[in-house]
User: What shape does this take?
Amino acid sequence: MKATAQAGANIAFVKYWGALDPELHLPLNNSISLTLDQATTLVTVEFSPHVGEDVGEDVIELEGRRAEGRVRERVVRFLDHLRRLSGTDERARVASQSTFPVATGLASSASLFAGMAVAGLAALGLALEPREVSTIARLGSGSAARSVFGGWVEWVAGGRHEDSYAYPLKPRDWWPVRDIIVIVSQEPKESPSLAGHAAARTSPCFAGRLASTSEHLALARTAIFTRDLEALGTVAEAEALLLHAVSMTTDPPALYWLPATVAVMRQVWAWRREGMPVYFTLDAGPNVHVLTTPEEAPRVATGLCAVDGVQRTIVCQPGGPPVLGDVHLF
Ligand code: DP6
Assistant: This one.
């Protein structure tokens, strides 16, 4: 009744921003991402009649700290979904440990809930098809639907719970792109994604972003199938800027950028003018992802560390699907 899984975070090139149903994490558009190998979360889940005997509730420890408030509620709600699936009412103990700063817009909820889905289902002895695992992971966090697969992944918006799942476009070894995570802040973000998804419609830029997604999806798919970094990078930058144009014009607005965020974006553009194959994208936070080739990655990573305000970089390769392991966190 105890299982541990390791799942990778993912970076979206075509983004999920704005929800059809925020409770079920149903998006308004398909999205496309790459699962990452160096930004992972290890999650142990145990269901047992003895867990929480003294306190009568689930015991949840994320990144070495007892989870509280909204974060705890979200994990408990997810455990309730798993309990409903298997018909148990046993309490659970959950622990997680990530290799990257969490809650800073680096999609830590994706690797956490993908790992929790895989470990939780294994702990309950439930063997489901990957597509079903993806729909279940989505109930924890939308982007977690994509982290159930390795490599290049598309999440189909669907419109109903059972139709909204991710599927692999290409495996991890299809294209050895590098994604360099540029950390400019490790502070938890002020505005969670959930609030951003809910507020998105209040932006005058919202309809424009949504209207461009089908063209962006087609461009991103073709770029991946033809291994065209310029095409993928161009879409990824456009998508990131549109997402932030929406978020900074909502009511209330959310401005995620820090001075170092902008400095990194400008540095990427300066390198491109010199002919280097580098492109940026960002999720809902100040940290930046820089896409480049394996050949350029060492030079780009060194150059990024020299940008004012950059704390460190994590150079990622395409990652695989979540894996079950036998070393548990408790
Ligand atoms: C900007 O998946 O974190 O990273 O469903 O509320 O958990 P919830 O949202 P979340 O949103 C991710 C938003 C994004 C873009 C993306 O990954 O597609």
